[in-house]
Write a structure and sequence with these properties.
The complex is a heterodimer of chains A (246) and B (269). With 246 residues, chain A is mainly α. Chain A has a single domain, classed as Transmembrane di-heme cytochromes, Chain C (Fumarate Reductase Cytochrome B subunit, Up-down Bundle). Helices cover 75% and strands 2% of the residues of chain A. Chain A has 11 helices and 2 strands. Chain A has a two-stranded antiparallel ribbon with strand order 1-2. The termini of chain A are far apart. Chain B is α+β, with helices and mostly antiparallel strands and 269 residues long. Chain B has 2 domains: 162 residues, Alpha-Beta Plaits (2-Layer Sandwich), CATH 3.30.70.20; 46 residues. Helix content of chain B is 33%, strand content 16%. Chain B is built from 7 helices and 8 strands. In chain B, strands 6-1-8-7 form a 4-stranded mixed β-sheet. In chain B, strands 2-3 form a two-stranded antiparallel sheet. Classes of the chains: A mainly alpha (246), B alpha+beta (269). At the A-B interface, helix 3, helix 4 and helix 8 of A face helix 3 and helix 7 of B.
Amino acid sequence: MQKAEKEKGFWASIVEPIGDIIATLIHDALFDDPGRPGVKRFSLQARVFHWTIAGLVILMGITGLILFVPGWGAIALAGWTRIIHRLCAYAFGVVLVLYFITYPKASLAFIKEAFTWKKEDIGWLKAATDYYTGGEESKMPAQGHINPGQNLWQLITIVCGVIFFVTGAILCFAKGAVSPAVFQWSLFTHALAFIIGSSMLIVHAVLGALHPRMSESLRSMITGKVSEEYAKSHYGKWYEEISKQL
Amino acid sequence: MAKAMLIDVSKCIGCRACQVACKEWHDLPAEETTNRGTYENSPDLSADTWTKIIFKEHGNDGALRWLFRKHQCMHCTDSACVNVCPTGALQRHPTLGFVTYDRNKCSGCGYCVEFCPFGIPRMDRESNKLLGTGLMGGKCDFCIDRVSHGLEPACAKACPSGAIKYGEWEDLVAEGKQRVKVLKEKHPDANFYGEHELGGLHMLYVLDERPEVYDLPVDPQMPAAATALNVGEWTGVGLGLLVGAGMLGAVILARARMIEKKKEESAEG
């Protein structure tokens, strides 16, 4: 009896935080609670968009990776993982286009931001190793809405997304229409985009969800808000701007 | 020592005993085909047809010649299919040199179909029509079960005219070149195929016409993308592990340093 309770406690410790995140996300998605303390960081549509894309990308990543893992081949053979992979890819395209049509200004600003790089950004990236291994927070220069590391991730999502989309379309629809060499290089490039994208996704997920430095990152993508102290210490320039507006 | 088969097309009589023997030994079902106005049958390799004789009508100065060539996996030394196979279902036999295929490891990705310079592998899409997926249907396995027990492959055993010969790779290369010399007297285009192609094929051909007459690619190459994909797969695994370990280390280190700093601050304050 005691043992059974202990086991339940273990699983609850894993399931409950996840349930908490999902419940908060759904609650905040339905009721954009203005009473929650803190500074608004992500709009509701941005958060829903983020988690939709995240779900699709993870599904596509897993269903694609299955083909490559020795011992998992039997799962891929049943065929449904391939169907999921393709359906998610179509959904991915539809979601992107819909978001772009609905919020063209924000989308263009996002793309422009990702391709805008200043000299001091490179310096920030060089100093980031110390920063993310627990170095002095005060050593880092004040940042805007996002820091260069996050901007790098934005750039990679756009570049990898385009590569996935183009090569995926060739693999899906253009078999026989393109030369064997083009098809072969599409296969390679699709895999290459996965290698780069998934490696950086590990960095993104760990920094966003686990890293002590980014303690409010995951929560802000769920509730949309960060505390004033967090905004001040992590995004000084941005905090100044929005403080003026208030 | 690497083994090989020497196929002397000048001795082939197109009886297709090798096709039947292959089906018999591997227990592969017969396929229903339609008359296409040729004795050539089956029309193509398939998931259940691992070898076939290609029939050619070749005009030579008004004199028509009927040519036959046994067609199957060439068992290349530099095998593109092995390079691109992500699960290790396709492998090079370490000592005998053939390309082996393990159905149990296959994920059905179909990369081998796209990269084979000879266009040999076929997917068994019929087994899962709804979703259009399936294993690679199989390909010539060099009768690995017979060969590893000291028997010759089924097709070589069945061949009544001595057109298929099984033996040591080096011996067969020497023998084949000798035969080409003899054939040159009557057929000036006679040549030996398979010694240098893709690091050496384990299906060696004595041809009495140029390779292209027999639908064989002249100087086939390993597709550059196959090499890239092979390197990429291992790089990907390495990079993924490296990044994962690096991030985990960063989290642990950052947590420790930040806790320590807080302690210092609270001690000072």
